[in-house]
Amino acid sequence: MSPWLPILMAVPVVGAIVVALLPKGSDKLAKQVTLAVSLLVLVLTGVMAAGFKPSGERFQFTAAYDWIPSFGVKFGVGVDGVALVLIALSVVLVPIVVLASWHDADGVKTADGTLITPKRSVKTYFSLLLVLETMMIGVFAATDIFLFYVFFEAMLIPMYFMIGSYGGAQRSYAAVKFLLYSLFGGLLMLVAVIGLYVVAGSKTFMFPELVGAIQDPTTQKWLFGGFFIAFAIKAPLWPVHTWLPDAAAQAPAGAAVLLVGVLDKVGTFGMLRFCLELFPDAAKAFTMPIVVLAVISIIYGAIVAIGQTDMKRLIAYTSISHFGFIVLGVFAMSATAQSGAALYMVNHGFATGALFLAAGFLIARRGSPFIGDYGGVQKVAPLLAGFFLVAGLAGLSLPGLSSFVSEFMVMIGTYSSAAHGSGALTVAAVIAALAVILAAVYILWMIQRAMNGPTAEPVKLFKDLNAREVWVLAPLIALIIGFGFFPKPLLDVINPSVHQTLTNVQVPTSTIAEKGTGQ
Amino acid sequence: MNTIPAPTIEYGTLAPLLVVFGAAIIGVLVEAFAPRYLRKAIHVPLTLLSLFGAFALVLVQVLRGQVATTASAMGAVAVDGPSLFIWGVILVLSFVCVLLINDEGHFVASAAAVPGSADEEEAEAEGGGGHTEVYPLVLFAVGGMLLFPAAHDLLMMFVALEVMSLPLYLLCGLARRRRLLSQEASMKYFLLGAFSSAFFLYGTAMIYGYAGTVSLPGINEALAKGSGLDPLLMLGLALLGVGLLFKIGAAPFHAWKPDVYQGAPTPITALMASGTLVAAVGAVLRVFWVGLGNLDWNWRPIIWGVAALTMIVGSILAITQTDIKRMLAYSSIAHAGFLLVGVMATFGTAAQNAVSLKAILFYLAVYSITTVGAFAVVTLVRDPGGEAGHLSRWAGLGKRSPMLAGVFAFFLLAFAGIPLTSGFFGKYAVFAAALNSGTQPGDSMGGWMAGLVVVGVVASAIAAFFYVRVIVLMFFSEPAADGPAIAVPSTGTVAVIAVSLLVTVGVGLYPESLLGVANDAAHSLFIR
């Protein structure tokens, strides 16, 4: 029994209560408390992660308390390598988002005086953010499937209010669409969770005890379906992706970062851990259809992104393309591809986070999300343009930046995967590689239109990044470049748990190849 | 000459019932003899004390471990574990509803006066306080609710049905505002209710013709021996089913609910939406599980269809509603459907059936307390002409009164079954029981149960839409310029909302204690 994870989960929620109870008019204090709490969580996570032994037990820092004995539910937590890096991603992003959202609820005005967002309750926003942090840690740390489900669904509510109360003009439509899509998927998963419990008959929801519990192939397929649809909506995979561009475009930039950077990862994380390990036969049987959907997502997301005029929607569509890569890597059933997919989840969080935040700063200066309203920003605000460029290049997976490593691993791992024998995966990898070219088009074209060329009239009033904004972007850019050249620390943590997954899926060990970091 | 033997009556076991009915009769005497200015001062403590006393008597029986194992009062009333649990729930609910009823301004001063007439104005001017008959009427209705799920034979059940329903018909017509709507509700409820009672009675007669007895275990015994295809039995089953399903508002017998819920004074709506539903589901369980337990091959497919239809109809029609009370009425229909899913989960070992029963009892407790809280919030949002029923009037409430809107949003999320609210665990328990009962070997309904659960979650997803829509209105819309005023809540109303909120949050975080109570109540199943 290790108290680490329960403490990590308790700190933000206590912080949220403190922030919510602050007296009226203490907005500044609310922000400071939130930042302090999120930094404390970051430090605690760092200390905990330092004690993680990659070669040790699969699940470490485990703890389990009886929660609802009548249902066989435990408050069971513990992390393997993949969960650990995703928790690390979450707790790194939260303080950055806090700093980035510093004035989001204050009522933002542009340089020429037009109101972008009206004044709203600052305390509510930041306490929702902290509640969300608890749930993000909880969803990755849960080793009890029921507890995972509880966090999976409950985390929709703070995000729903963050989009609905603090978002753009279409916010209530976007918030409702987001909530209903996710809720529907979640309810199907609920049926599968109950089914798993009933069919396994082992009176427990603890994940390690349920691995291998379902043997009947037909039952596996049905239950797999329930889980997979929920995760595919969350991830999101074509054709159930349509909520994401709306939600991400309407959400305030900070919330969009957490939505795309962390919440959606729960989908791919769930596929990797639950779909594959609980239902290995079904996962193998459904590999090809899912790979086809993933490839469609990759290409479709990239093509649609090219056609976007709204910056945030464009980034959302690039994410759909990237999530296609992650899903492809998960289902390619080779160690390189799955390690690449897990690494991709982290790198995508940093890269897309940086891009969303840089776009958010740009939009905050002009009040318009449309690329066509900008031009020549780099002459007026070179720092902003520079950060935007690096973030964009990370989005198109330029070698030397972190996303390149993971994208390359996914493609190599898929290309050489023997899992499906016929070479179908090789074809999939070749088609997916086309997206690399499309990515260059959508990113570079956006940068060209917004940053280069003649300076548009309102853009001339722009101020460059202030210190707060630099502090938001600099750590992300440092991480992107750092992990681009030196991904080993992450891979060392990820690899053992991916091996464990593949062993549970019973993929022949000969295909579990090593290395391939692309460096 | 033969002597008629005196019946044995277990006064101790039946004490909660007797206290409530006794207080109701005293209430009538108060109405007759006490001067008008004193009446309310006598009624309120009398009503609250009797409900509290009855609850204490239930507790005493449970805590002393003296739950009866045979039927009381010559086999007419079964005070078993489930009965006591349901009694406890109903008594708590009626206690908090009386706190709501206590508030000024819900009831008309003179119900007999024609709306808009000079008589009415006069009555308003002099009396003002509303009818004090409300209190004994509520007590009679509560007494009926207690007896209904505990009745051990069909005749006693019919008597309980009438004792419960007649005061409610009357109470529905007593709303102070929108008199015509209220009277219409009362009339509709009375006519349709009378029909359904007739169905029930006719069904009882048919079944008596088949089994030669009205006692529930007697009927079950006759079923074990006789043919299951006797026309008398079939007709009786159908008619009895209509009567019972009407009371819980299952489709296609749901049409009265929205009209009545909308027209009735809101505290009475709260009482009906919680207490009546709990009592009626209890009665449905007893009739189908005890009386018709050996006939489940015949009724389970029918209930399957009714449950699926009820969930779908309730959820879909709720979307088109523009009145908050009508919306909650359709939501109540959908929840009745979810409960019926649990009613079907009775094809297993005794232990498995006990799990299903526990799930239903738990669901009833958490759903009904949240319902009372939601209606209590509805009473506070007022226009000059009364409560602000129309949904558009609720726009921007989150800005004007964040606390109240936040609490209401939380209740709505509980109705929608979002995790970390009590509603989620209720829904989970019922669905798990249904799937669990579908795994029994020899149950041809096995796959169908899984199908019904899928229908249930689809209906939940649809239902989530209209709950969420209200949240959107309250929080994400700008307030109307002449929006409704938030009445300053009385202590009673605050207490009601606080209790419901505490239960909804508390059970949502830690359901084990309530589950434990439900488990103790359910583990011995019904007296047979």
TrEMBL record, chain A:
GO molecular function, one term: NADH dehydrogenase (ubiquinone) activity
Source organism: Nonomuraea jiangxiensis
Listed Pfam families: Proton_antipo_M (PF00361)
Magnesium recorded as keyword: no
InterPro entries linked: NADH_Q_OxRdtase_chainM/4, NADH_UbQ_OxRdtase, ND/Mrp_TM
GO cellular component terms listed in the entry, alphabetical order: endomembrane system; membrane
Segments crossing the lipid bilayer: 6-22, 34-52, 81-102, 122-140, 146-166, 178-202, 222-241, 253-274, 286-307, 314-335, 341-363, 383-405, 425-447, 468-486
Location(s), subcellular: Endomembrane system; Membrane
GO BP terms: ATP synthesis coupled electron transport; electron transport coupled proton transport
Segments forming domain NADH:quinone oxidoreductase/Mrp antiporter transmembrane: 142-419
Family listed: Belongs to the complex I subunit 4 family.
Protein's recorded name: NADH-quinone oxidoreductase subunit M
Keyword Methyltransferase in annotation: no
Sorted UniProt keywords: Membrane, Transmembrane, Transmembrane helix
Membrane topology: Multi-pass membrane protein
From TrEMBL, chain B:
Coiled coil: none
Role description: NDH-1 shuttles electrons from NADH, via FMN and iron-sulfur (Fe-S) centers, to quinones in the respiratory chain. The immediate electron acceptor for the enzyme in this species is believed to be a menaquinone. Couples the redox reaction to proton translocation (for every two electrons transferred, four hydrogen ions are translocated across the cytoplasmic membrane), and thus conserves the redox energy in a proton gradient.
Domain (NADH:quinone oxidoreductase/Mrp antiporter transmembrane): residue spans on this chain: 151-438
InterPro entries: NADH-Q_OxRdtase_suN/2, ND/Mrp_TM
Lineage summary: Bacteria, Bacillati, Actinomycetota, Actinomycetes, Streptosporangiales
Family from the record: Belongs to the complex I subunit 2 family.
Listed GO CC annotations: endomembrane system; plasma membrane
GO biological processes: ATP synthesis coupled electron transport
Entry protein name: NADH-quinone oxidoreductase subunit N
GO molecular function annotations of the record: NADH dehydrogenase (quinone) (non-electrogenic) activity; NADH dehydrogenase (ubiquinone) activity; quinone binding
Annotated NCBIfam families: NDH_I_N (TIGR01770), PRK05777.1-4 (NF004441)
